Amino acid sequence: MRYQMPPPSTIRTGCKVTLPTLLDLPNELLLRIFHQLTAVRDAFSLAGACSLLHNLFLQSRNRILRSAADIPCRPDYGISETFSGFTRTSPSSWMIQTDKQFPYIIDMRPDLDSSPSIWHFIISDHQHLAFRETLDAFLHHFREIDPHLLDFYGGGSMDILLAAARLQEGILRNSAAAPTDFSGDTTIIALALRCLLDFHIIDIINLSCYGGPMEHDLPDDGSPVDLFNGLGTDNPPLSAKGYKQTSDDQSAVPTSLDEDIPGCHFKSNPHTMLDTIIWLSFKLLDTGDPKHWPTVMYVLLILGLIQDSLFYCPMWMGRLYKASDILGRAFQGLAQYFYLSTEGGKILTYRWDKEDYVERVGHDHLAVEHACILHDLWFDGDEQVQWNKRKKYKGLKGFPTKLVEFADGEFRHSH
User: Would you say which domain of life the source belongs to (predicted)?
Assistant: First the structure.
């Protein structure tokens, strides 16, 4: 007769032996098992095995799902290096490097005699104001539709931008301490709006000159070339001045405006703003607090508009066009983490339950108000049915695309 091994719970003497099971492992090891999973579905399956694993999962839900979806815990997307070719050289000018390291200085010249606009604010020196006062003045421009922005962004996008600014004002009102710069999470929406305006310069060039001058079109004496005269629109005139790579006087090329200013502020370079925005957004999602859902959603929608600006860069901005891939990677990681942290982007689904959200956020009226605004903007009229039938917008992988088109207002005009 063939020999058979006794059951693992016994030995040959018949004495009972209790072997350790998975659930006898320390919680630290069980969490490590969660973090070794490579699929979100597997994480949910393991969490559903028993109450112990379910409770462990809930304690570290966002981090476990982030790991399973292969979203880095401390993401470094290389934005500072990639966007180093787009810097601010004065309150009214930006330097853009081409593929050949050939710098253009883009100069803005708004009509100082016209009514105050967002562009007048951007080129002004606010040193006489405290940061909070400057912040309030900046957000004031988003209390109603600014024709300078409406000239490019459609009604759907402007609704999002105006609502985002209102939430930012509400967060500032509820904050105990006045911010001194953009480094804290209580000013992240304002920082995203400020960053958007830098990239909006590219939008103006795209709309006005359809590609602009090539390097060989610049005069040898380095004199300005008009990109856009501003006539017939609410956008400011723009000119470009080139600095030849072979020039003997390289000191003539302007330097970055914020090189010697620490922190993140109104005059920071775009790459500093982007880095700060992405880092703070991940930080807010890491808290697992649902009251931050509307804040991060607005930030994602603004980043979607910035990403769109880069997608249409003219040929001579080739370096910025390539940088859009890096920003796209960062946007995708953040959007997918938002999707996982908010139970599948719950605010933007049929599963949205206002009463449930009210209880989750402890009756935080500001968070509830803006969650409802985002929900209503998303399901605008009967378009909701078509949206949910589109396979490319479904699930974790489709969510970033869904956000970009929502930011653009595409869901209002796509049928």
Answer: Eukaryota
For 178-189, write each residue's pLDDT tens digit: 899 999 999 999
CA distance 327 to 277: 12
Specify the pTM. 0.85
Same-domain check for residues 60 and 195: no
Same domain for 180 and 62: no
∠ CA 304-160-352, nearest 5°, is 95
Residue 412 has pLDDT above 60, yes or no: no
Shared domain check, 164 and 268:
yes
List all residues 6 or more positions away from 306 whose beta carbon is below 8 Å from its beta carbon.
195, 196, 199, 274, 327
Residue among 203, 173, 401, 413 at smallest CA distance from 314: 203
Q: Are residues 57 and 148 in the same domain?
A: no
Residues 139, 59, single domain; the answer is no
**Statement to judge: residues 49 and 198 lie in one domain:** no
Is residue 231 predicted with pLDDT exceeding 60? no
* Greater model confidence, 112 or 146: 146
